[in-house]
TrEMBL record, chains A, B:
Pfam families: Bac_luciferase. This is FMN-dependent oxidoreductase, nitrilotriacetate monooxygenase family. Belongs to the NtaA/SnaA/DszA monooxygenase family. One of its GO terms (molecular function) is monooxygenase activity. InterPro entries: Diverse_substr_monoxygenases (IPR051260), Luciferase-like_dom (IPR011251), Luciferase-like_sf (IPR036661), NTA_MOA (IPR016215). It comes from the Bacteria. FMN binds at D61, T98, H148, Y152, S222, S223. Keywords: Flavoprotein, FMN, Monooxygenase, Oxidoreductase. Residues 31-388 form the Luciferase-like domain. It comes from Actinacidiphila yanglinensis.
Length: 461, 461
């Protein structure tokens, strides 16, 4: 499955996170003191990404204070609010935000994403997450995370309800005939009357159908449930892959699962994460990478790693490998695939705890790559041609400088090689990714054999 | 309680609603076809209001499709998203949005308002509503509206949780010491460990304390529970008052209740609604008013009125007064005070159903006033001097033209009379209203006898 013969441009997403994906990025002299809450900082990032003609930008999220406030900037702006603020200073780039299906109500979330899609002229995307972690659960009246399987069942029903609500207005519902006084056509706005296991929602939505119909649906979990969820509902997948072989296997697996749900495998775009650390020379890049790792405070990082592994911190020795006796993926609830990835990374590369902390500090399980712009472009091209990706989720270690370097040095190389657009050709997020606008399953008659309409068909069960 | 001797400038809020508060405004040739979802229309309104140096703008909301889509524009943007988009095109005006305590989780809503306050540089306000109506309930898994009293108990606890979350970061929590690697001071960020009747929330919030500490707290219900809620928590009150006598009585009642909760009555600003219909001459204004009423489709309006009165539509005759046999306020759940106001208005002025429909079509129970700019300024001054108001909630019948007329013709008269600011002197919403930034009740030691710290004291139970 190589791509040399049939080379289409690839897709690039900028994953924006405070002052960078490396947890010590804030300690560099160049970094703003508290970038997570700094709207001017984020607006600058959005403008840089759009200057590079990137498909989209992306914001992660969980409804909980994540990480140790003593150790790094953890205060941040709520993503649908932040997306809206970024929409105001950009004109083309797609705007994707994470939101939880476990801790939101479908009516509320459907309204917000429909509103962002209207305000941005069709640039909204929703990264659907089920939210692992007892800390988040305890902000919503629960004692612990709901079970993995329950979270995914609720997520599936949530997406079902949300898409029905987005489809509760036909695209042609609004007539606005001033003469007769008829505003919308009565039979083109419908209640949805959803009655399910987790939700009862009457509808209709109080927002008319938006430019894209509804936001691009994105998914980022890589567990078995996560991959099936992606194959069924998602139009784009962000994934953490450490090796080319694993990335190819994941890519093929998700595309096959997508086809098995009766969907066109081209209708789902797979974007592995890459944490580029770019220097004028390879030595410069490696020096920056080392400097960032040096700035991690190991005593905090060790505690965080022990927490992730569900073992007491004193079982970890900074200068030895992970102990043998740690839980298996089956024994933990939540973030299962990321857990396994971390343990396998440590075992495969025989990393000491200190080395593992450095790798996780940079990309939290995503692949870090330190080198020149040419080398970063080479590795992107190599993975793309090998059939490991439809594009990449760019996670600069330091922001804004890492994004500027990527946009100003790596993107031109990809453009020269015919691998990336030089101008936007579409206006909506789905147009950037070459995906069709979804049909309306409450009002449009669709041919169920067509197989390229995303949710409308995937959900016709 | 007249104000002639001690005349301070009054406060003005622009209540933005689609293409105007009159339900037939959309049928005028000048109106955009679907203003409720049109971000450019709203951004234009926000700029006009700021040009007039108004204190704030306000967006109503309910998580349900309100009104008949066949009859008027009902699609609209979610308010926290819309506020954020309006923050981007303005620099000073306050930004107030309604959000429901019955159909949100405190953690989620606290994050969004804190984020809007950050993004806008301290201009956010939250109009706290409990949301009446079975239609809304049926979007959230319920069969009917929760009982009035339950809704208010939940609302009180909701505000308690939200303010704790907003206070979970001390103002000086973030140190951002790059040298030592300490970002926030560990003892200046705290869990809130709330355990109540309706909510269990651990915290802390994942957004640091915002420029205003937290959004201005606004309230708009006028039932007994509503007035007590306002007296206890609110810093501004929007209210519908038809006569000067009733407005004075309401004003004094709320100020006294506020004092009874140990708060400074100056710490709560009362703004009755006024629906100005402005013309070059009084005859012009009255003609526009009549034209708008003529554009209401009476068969739809009769059905809506019957629904509000909980009687079958065939019991209403367009050319007769309301029937004697309709429910009392005690017999209904939700929107109690507005119900009584409508019935009393009809009885007092001996309105036919058709006339009542015209009055409600214009202001939904708020006071409509058709006249010249001078006459509108006179009535504002008269009510203000009589001690009926600290300011006014301006609800133009037609938008943007009604707001433009108010800003360009009425505001200069009020400025000439020394009744309204000619320039902004503050930057935050609370500064515009002359209200103090709230102290932090988790971190600040406050003198409970000071009596001007809003929630911090009101809630010290």
């Amino acid at each position: 499955m190589t791509r040399k013969a049939d080379r289409k441009p690839l897709h690039l997403n900028a994953f924006l996170m405070s002052v960078g994906h490396h947890e010590a990025a804030w300690r560099l002299p160049e970094s703003p003191a508290d970038g997570g809450t700094d709207i001017a900082h984020y607006q600058n990032l959005a403008r840089i990404a759009e200057r590079g003609r990137l498909d989209s930008l992306f914001l992660a999220d969980s409804p909980v204070l994540q990480g140790d406030p003593g150790r790094r900037p953890v205060s941040k702006l709520e993503p649908t609010v932040l997306l809206t603020a970024l929409a105001g200073v950009t004109t083309h780039i797609g705007l994707i935000a994470t939101a939880s299906t476990s801790y939101n109500e479908p009516y509320n979330l459907a309204r917000r994403f429909a509103s962002v899609d209207h305000v941005s002229g069709g640039r909204a995307g929703w990264n659907i997450v089920t939210t692992a972690g007892a800390d988040a659960a305890r902000n919503f009246g629960l004692d612990d995370t709901p079970l993995h399987r329950d979270r995914y069942l609720r997520a599936a029903e949530f997406v079902d309800v949300a898409t029905k609500l987005w489809d509760s207005w036909a695209d042609d519902a609004v007539l606005a005939d001033k003469e007769s006084g008829v505003h919308a056509l009565a039979d083109r706005v419908r209640k949805v009357h959803h009655q399910g296991e987790y939700f009862r929602v009457d509808g209709p939505l109080n927002v008319r159908r938006s430019p894209q119909g509804y936001p691009l649906l994105v998914q980022a979990g890589s567990s078995e449930d996560g991959k099936d969820f992606a194959a069924r509902y998602a139009e784009a997948v962000f994934t953490a892959q450490q090796t080319l072989e694993e990335a190819i296997a994941f890519y093929q697996d998700v595309k096959q699962r997508t086809a098995a749900f009766g969907r066109d495998p081209e209708g789902i775009k797979i974007l592995p994460g890459i944490v580029p650390v770019i220097g004028d020379t390879e030595a410069d890049a490696l020096a920056l990478d080392a400097e960032l790792d040096r700035l991690i405070r190991p005593e905090y990082a060790k505690r965080q790693l022990a927490n992730r592994l569900r073992i007491p911190p004193d079982q970890l020795d900074l200068d030895r490998e992970l102990p043998e006796d740690i839980p298996t993926e089956d024994e933990i609830e939540g973030a299962k695939s990321r857990y396994t990835l971390v343990v396998e990374l440590a075992r495969r590369e025989k990393l000491t705890v200190r080395q593992l902390i450095g790798r996780l500090g940079g990309g939290r399980g995503h692949r870090t790559f330190a080198g020149t712009a040419e080398q970063v472009a080479d590795t992107i091209e190599h993975w793309y041609d090998a059939g490991a990706a439809d594009g990449f989720n760019i996670m600069p270690a330091v922001l804004p400088s890492g994004l500027e370097l990527f946009v100003d040095r790596v993107v031109p190389i990809l453009q020269e090689r015919g691998l990336f657009r030089t101008e936007y050709t579409g206006r909506t997020l789905r147009e950037h990714y070459g995906l069709p606008r979804p049909s309306n399953r409450l009002f449009d008659t669709v041919d169920a054999s067509a197989g390229h309409l995303g949710i409308a068909l995937a959900d016709a069960r």
